[in-house]
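Notes from hallway chat w/ T.B., transcribed later so I don't forget. T.B. wanted the structure written out for a chain they're using in a teaching module, and asked if we could keep both sequence and structure tokens in one place. Agreed to drop them here.
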Amino acid sequence: MKLIGIRLFRMNIKMVGIVMFLGIGSLYGAFEEMGFSPRAWALGEAMVSLPTGVDGLYFNPASLGYGKDGFFTAALSRPYGLKELGTAAVGLGVHFPFAGIGLTAASFGFDLYREHLISLAFGRTMGSKVAYGLRMKVMGVRIENYGFDQTFGFDMGFLIWIGENLLWGGCLKNLNKPGLGEANEELPQVFQTGFCYYPREGMMFALQADKDVRFPTRMGFGCEYQIFQNLSLRVGVGSNPATFSGGMGIRLRSFQLDYGLSSHQVLGLTHAVGVTLRFQLPQHL
């Protein structure tokens, strides 16, 4: 069972165009985690430098170190309007005095091909300017008539404040070079780095570069603006492939609803929606 077989079994007759695209670019790689977050879809995937704990579940475990209290989150997405590419994810995060801890479970695909991911992450601060984190994950894939295989992976990330308004972040995905199948073919090892800038309260700009040794560098840029106390608007762009995106976040006390929309130049629209519930932990924890 090889990765090329994995890519082929993802698609049915309606998805031939996507299969052709996979041959020339990083469209939707194995165990791609961008689909887990409506905010990521909206911000052009520029997420690695954001210091919010919720996003640390998927993009940079170091951001769990800056979290407060606890949260539960769930998200659904349907890339390019195809139910065969549907993604569902749930996550739980809690922040203790010594570190932030997060647990994630996610599923991608359909009956013929399905990926499963379970991860445990922690993030910890060193003073007020630096945070680091580690994520341990179990990744499994099931292909009808071919069986099931799984592997273990590790991600490591960091966040560093440069001044009061600028944050630098980075994350190395699959640093242990996990493999799948009898040939133990390696999953993509990707390094992501970027900057997050807060020019004033309620406004954020994020820039990110992703480097997978198999493909050209991908760039993403996003902007988030809080126009009202409970409403934030988001826009983003990306390259390789070219995408344009937008979305919003609505927060009502401890409850937040997020929506993301991304437009691919060939494959069309992706819709994603998610909810987050924040809660306070007992004072003695």
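Follow-up for T.B.: Residues 3-9 form the longest helix (7 residues). Might be a good example for the class.
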